[in-house]
Amino acid sequence: MHRRELLQLLDNYHTPFNTEAGYISRIRRFIQQHEDCFDSHLWPGHVTGSAWVVSPARDKVLLLHHRKHDQWFQPGGHADGDADIVRVALRETHEETGLPYDQIRLQGRTIFDVDIHTIPASTLGPMHKHYDIRFLVEIEDHLNVPGND
Predict the structure, then answer these.
(1) How far apart are CA 39 and CA 115, in angstroms?
(2) Model-level pTM greater than 0.90?
(3) Rounded CA gap, 90 and 92, in Å?
(4) First-to-last CA distance in the chain?
């Protein structure tokens, strides 16, 4: 995947929510302005990938506690230069849940949700934005989710 493919995914994503529609415009502009938009060392911000993990009946969702931010989030994270944001979302889901790839089922290569959020300054870097592209994945709800540190 290349920036063009991500821009095409964004072109095909439609939302009834005004705030999210604004995010789409801002994300598109950011991607067009920054060839290195997938680089986690780009300090105005960078594209990240994550997944909403649901049960087959869609009655449960998996969230993980982020120790540093002391908040609950869906699995996701930095692209680390990988322009295939679908692959990033699946990799992050695998790494953060501890589940094998064959237990994580992507529910289509279309965007499920987008968000822009601010990451506060820390010893790892200055305050910056995450331009988060989210996909829907499914796991069986009887699975033991080992998680990670």
Answers:
(1) 18
(2) yes
(3) 5
(4) 30
Pick the CATH number of 3-138 from 3.90.79.10, 3.90.25.10, 3.30.70.2190, 3.30.230.10: 3.90.79.10
For tokens 């601010």, what's the residue? Answer: 118
Q: How far is CA 89 from the centre of its chain?
A: 5
Residue in the block written with tokens 């105005």: 44
Question: Residue 14 has which token pair?
Answer: 């439609």
Token pair in block for residue 146 = 């080992």
Tokens of 46: 């960078």
pLDDT tens for 35-72 read: 999 999 999 999 999 999 999 999 999 999 988 788 89
How many other CB atoms are there within 10 angstroms of residue 138's CB atom? 18
Q: Which two tokens stand for residue 24?
A: 């789409």
C-alpha 51/C-alpha 44 separation (Å) is 23
CA dist., res. 145 & res. 121, Å (int)? 31
d(CA 7, CA 24): 10
d(CA 122, CA 124): 5
